[in-house]
Amino acid sequence: MRLTRLSPLLIAALLAGCGNQPSTERLARAAQPSSKKVEQSFPRAGLRLELPDNLSVTRTERPGVFYASFGETVVSAFAYRRRERLPKTAAELTRALERLERATQDRDPAYVLRDSSATKVGTSRAVELVGDQTIQKQKLRTRSVHVYEGEAEYVLELLSPRKDFTRLDRDLFEPVLESLRVTGRVRRARN
Q1: How far apart are CA 111 and CA 19, in angstroms?
Q2: DSSP code at position 86
Q3: Pick the CATH number of 8-29+37-182 from 3.20.20.70, 3.40.1000.10, 3.40.50.920, 3.40.50.2300
Q4: Strand pairing of 47-52 and 181-182?
Q5: Engineered SS bond to 48: which of 68, 69, 79, 181, CB 3.0-4.6 Å?
Q6: What pairing do the DSSP bridges indicate for beta strands 37-42 and 73-81?
Q7: Which residues of the chain have pLDDT under 50?
Q8: 4 membership: H or E segment, kind and range
Q9: How high is the pLDDT of residue 71?
Q10: How far apart are CA 136 and CA 18, in angstroms?
């Protein structure tokens, strides 16, 4: 999970539109995700989904899969091969969620958890956190969804300015999650 420790590249993408005088064109483009979707396939991660065609998508190094920027908003994905048993029962999901909440708070004591739940994404078991944090003086709301399938844990995240979060969660992130297809098989890195 990468709620609090973002790579410099991801931070740059997040802050890409933070100039003093944003262009009208960029504001119009960032105002709404496009209704036209483009299928994105990441075979090495065993992940496929649809993203609006006005997102700028960049593939990232393992365990990263991609990040997609949209104005001051970022959607990202990570894929982890897991050797340990992944949560399958309701009790195991609850324990995984509790561990995730503690780990997130340990990494960033200023992180404010707003909501958490055990859920499903498609047919896969999942847990999610929604919280507030500040990165590079930007007040952000984050939603981090951990999807368990096969021998893999997939993490999809939305980072957005708080004022835009509800709209972008509904119009951008929910359709992305609905389109998500995972195999549960993450290929090993080649040496």
Answers
A1: 26
A2: P
A3: 3.40.1000.10
A4: antiparallel
A5: 181
A6: unpaired
A7: 1-30, 191
A8: none
A9: 83
A10: 11
